[in-house]
Amino acid sequence: MKKFKFTLFSLLVIIFSGLLIQRFSGYFYTTPVGIVKSVKIIDSEQLLTVKLVNNTKKTVVVKVKFNGNESTNPVFNKNNQILLDNSTKKWEFISLKRDGYTFILVVSFVSLVLGIAGKKGFFSLVGILFNIIFLFFLLWINQRNRSINLLLLISIYTIIAIIISTGTLYGLKKIDLRKVLATIFSVFLSYFITTITMKLLNDQGLRYEEMQFLTRPYRTVFLASLMLGGIGAALDNVVVIISSLDQLVRHTPEINTKELIESGKNIASDTTTSMINVLLFAYLSSATPFFIFYLANGWDFVETFKMHLSLEIMRFLCGGLAILFTIPSSFLFFLLFKKIKKEGENR
């Protein structure tokens, strides 16, 4: 009961703090921040009367295009806080101010991870932070020097990210090479099969329209996203399978290889199905808003499906293959290292 009360109190503190940030942080912004005092919709424009909360206390009028479906700009309400720009001597809308709500989500997520997983949760968050920093660093290198192949950088990132993830979970001195190698093998094998298939079929059925805003070759960027897509799920599945095999060997040392593989298959069949389902819905959820938006505006179902789901389905297939390959690769490296260890003991 005490734990429940503490959790409830902590949640209320987080929400209250987030609302305070949302309400008062605008005073510390260098970018002009304003509170919408009134909204008038005239033809295809929203006429906003906005009171600035930083720099000056004056009231300004901002014109924003009106779209009922909110495809390009939101429909404003009274008391919305917005970020503005006056560099052209004309007040223009940049975006809604959402820092307080972001604070609530981020702090709630971190608190839940730490509360449920404890020390391991902390190191998982550290691993996520390191992986994000390293990814941005490699992308920065690519941005500064376009001659460096993006796929090469992402390949390096894939290997390092897997090592970082296992290192932060188990400690750098306790990195399990079996898990690292099995994950790398699964991810790269699925990637090569997917890219070879795309090459043989000349990318038939794939629609790259959603990537048309990119200023660099969109196919290369898409291929890089394929490689990244299955890392997390593949690593999770490898960890579950190899850890389960370790437990079986520890509790029943007399178990033979055939029985070990059979037991491992039963464990893998349950985890693999769950991982693939998670991956499927994760990819579909990112495309669903656009899918619904286009259908609501009269687009043909098949055309909309091809345009917004073809790339997501390809990402899912590549990631799903990586998860499936974790089963044989986990067995392969588990048995290989077991054999090496046994031979070392016999010498």
Task: Kindly summarize this structure in a few lines.
Helix content is 67%, strand content 10%. With 347 residues, it is an alpha+beta fold. It has 2 domains: 2-100, Beta Barrel (OB fold (Dihydrolipoamide Acetyltransferase, E2P)); 175-341, no CATH class.
Structural write-up:
This is YibE/F-like protein. Keywords: Membrane, Transmembrane, Transmembrane helix. By secondary structure, the chain is of the alpha+beta class. It has 2 domains: 2-100, OB fold (Dihydrolipoamide Acetyltransferase, E2P) (Beta Barrel); 175-341, no CATH class. The chain has helices at residues 2-24, 99-144, 150-170, 177-200, 218-229, 231-251, 257-296, 301-346; strands at 33-42, 45-52, 59-65, 81-85, 92-96. It has a 5-stranded antiparallel sheet, with no helix packed on it. The longest helix has 46 residues, at 99-144. The radius of gyration is 26 Å and the shape is globular.
What's the topology here?
Elements (H helix, E strand, L loop, with lengths): L1 H23 L8 E10 L2 E8 L6 E7 L15 E5 L6 E5 L2 H46 L5 H21 L6 H24 L17 H12 L1 H21 L5 H40 L4 H46 L1
Antiparallel strand pairs: 1-2, 1-4, 2-3, 4-5
Helix pairs in contact: 1-2, 2-3, 3-4, 3-5, 4-5, 4-6, 4-8, 5-8, 6-7, 6-8, 7-8
Keywords:
347 residues, alpha+beta, OB fold (Dihydrolipoamide Acetyltransferase, E2P), 2 domains, five-stranded antiparallel sheet, 8 helices, 10% strand, globular
